[in-house]
Amino acid sequence: MPPIKIAAxxxxxxxxxxxxxxxxxxxxxxxxxxxxxxxxxxxxxxxxTPIRNLPLLNKMSAEIELPNPPTSEIQLGVMRxxxxxxxxxxxxxxxxxxxxxxxxxxxxxxxIMANLINARYLLGSHPQKKQIAEILGLTQxxxxxxxxxxxxxxxxxxxxxxxxxxxDTWQNFRENYVPTVIAVLDFENGEVDFEDMSAxxxxxxxxxxxxxxxxxxxxxxxxxLINLEDLSxxxxxxxxxxTRDSDIEHxxxxxxxxxxxxxxxxxxxxxxxxxxxxIPAIPLLLExxxxxxxxxxxxxxxxxxx
Length: 306
Hints:
Blueprint: E1 28-34, E2 44-48, E3 61-65, E4 72-77, E5 120-123, H1 129-136, E6 139-141, E7 151-157, H2 164-168, H3 170-174, E8 180-185, H4 194-204, E9 212-216, E10 222-227, E11 232-235, E12 242-245, H5 248-264, H6 271-274, E13 281-283, H7 292-299
Parallel strand pairs: 5-6, 5-7, 7-8, 8-13
Antiparallel strand pairs: 1-4, 2-3, 9-10, 10-11, 11-12
């Protein structure tokens, strides 16, 4: 049965107004009696006493107080108002959320979000792209999405750089303020390290923030990441991976980088990333699982529609 709305209807007595409409209601749920506005004062009238049984006596008259006029009756009834049958499986707002029964149909002009249940993309070219997408739970793509997306991870290699089609459309894409992470790969080769690639990205695309820096072994191989916010070290040179506080020499080594990051986060912290205002660059080395947890940290900051 369709939902009904309860509506109160009023029937006024003839004492109140002869012009008031008299409605016929399908069912009376309640009957209430209230005084009439016109019956507040009792009315007086002169009445003649009956003389039928006393014909020889004089007629006597006296004022008597008559009962108050009739009161008004307010009848409350139920009037059924039929509502159009609701659409099954419609999209609620433009958020991609679904419910079995929705009370809002698709709004004209809004993009249907059915294909954006997993609107998180991994863009760029790299031999490990498929593996990275599976680990991070991202959908592989080659171009920036034309429809709204939750977030985007862009692959940047120190060897091959960033795909040209992405650099060509970067400015247009950034106008949408989609949360974006840049994953930097191949820095273990030694020709261009992570810090150098971050500077290159700043000129090629736009300035990026580096919340983590790479620490190397004496041989030059990447060994650990240092968090520039709390100065903790995640060591990937041993198994299992361990986290510890950094040494004094490490703190002194990254002090300028840490101060620069702190200054960039003063006005809004990483909420600026969620709003698409700033872009973190994260080193990623699958062989040691380096950078995976760090990238997932930023992915978890963005609310998921799925």
